[in-house]
Amino acid sequence: MVIESIPKAVGFIYGLLAFIALVGLWYSGRFTRRRALPFLVISALLGFLVFAPVFPYQLQMVALRDTVGLGSPIPMALGALLVFIALAFAFGRVICGQVCPAGAVQELMYRVPVAKRGSAERQTPVVIRAGVFVVFAVAALGLSADLLGLIGLPAFFHLAVGSVSFFVFLGIILLSAVVYRPFCRYVCPYGALLAPAASKALFRLRRTDACIGCRKCERACPTGEADPAAGLGECYLCGRCTDVCPVEGALVYGRAR
Questions:
Q1: Three-class SS of residue 120?
Q2: Burial of 246 (0-12, 13-18, 19+ CB in 10 A)
Q3: What is the share, in percent, of the chain residues with pLDDT greater than 70?
Q4: Which of 135, 111, 143, 152 has the alpha carbon at shortest distance from 240?
Q5: Among 32, 49, 68, 80, which residue's CB has the most CB atoms within a 10 Å radius?
Q6: Residue-wise DSSP of 142-166
Q7: Which alpha helices (H) appear in the chain, and where do they start and end?
Q8: Contact present, 205 and 232 (Cβ < 8 Å)
Q9: What is the pLDDT of residues 72-131, one digit of tens each?
Q10: Does residue 247 contact residue 212 with C-beta atoms inside 8 Å?
Q11: What is the C-alpha separation between 44 and 103, in angstroms, rounded?
């Protein structure tokens, strides 16, 4: 289904513009899950139409030095990936929340009204993803192996239903209806780079003195990052916490103290 006449650079340009728009919504206090929905839909459609900006796969193509798969020179693609890591350090994981097609499809699936499973904890996924990142790095740099291809990330967005790997990733997407973002939280190699940057983000969600300690945000958060002791590296800025907060101004997005 990928439309080859549209350059993949369109995906990166969209990614940057969407990032700016989403940060603007957060900073102005106007971000809601309803307002995030159009971004999720457009991001998912771009994944199917031009397979961009699928950041984890583009990172792997850089590691494999595959300019055909990237659709751009390696320095340009690497520069774009580094820019978004810097943006995560500045503004948090907005790119994971609503911009990356892989994350967007999972986020949309998690909105399906079925019983959810899994605990909202953050440490175990981080450890697992770190180990998986080492495996992907060794496979790509040392063995020239496309592991994300083997689990079907490109096959899924290319709708290659004749491929076994398509159904592997389809299974991950279906799982995300009941388990929050299994690919993002346990597998994504780019997320392994974004999380440490986001944990030190200059702008982030924080509680104010208006907080009444009702803990509704903690119960709504699917990753456990609403805990006051959390570092926010696993916060995808999904908006569930701010949507359920009963006190205006108790939970705000702004410069970290």
A1: coil
A2: exposed
A3: 98
A4: 111
A5: 80
A6: IH---HHHHTTHHHHHTT-TTSHHH
A7: 9-27, 33-50, 55-64, 67-70, 74-91, 94, 101-110, 123-137, 143, 147-150, 153-157, 164-175, 182-186, 189-198, 216-220, 240-244
A8: yes
A9: 889 988 998 999 999 999 999 999 999 999 999 999 999 999 999 877 777 888 889 999
A10: yes
A11: 8
d(CA 147, CA 255): 38
Residue 211 burial class via C-beta count within 10 angstroms: exposed 0-12, middle 13-18, buried 19 and up: middle
What b/e readout covers 39-54, taking b as 16+ CB neighbours within 10 angstroms? bbebbbebbbbbbbbb
Beta bridge partners of 252: 206
- What is the dihedral sign for C-alpha 137, 139, 144, 146? negative
Q: Which amino acid is at 242?
A: T
Measured torsion, CA atoms of residues 183, 184, 188, 193, in degrees rounded to the nearest 10: -170
Residue 66 near residue 177 (C-beta atoms within 8 A):
no
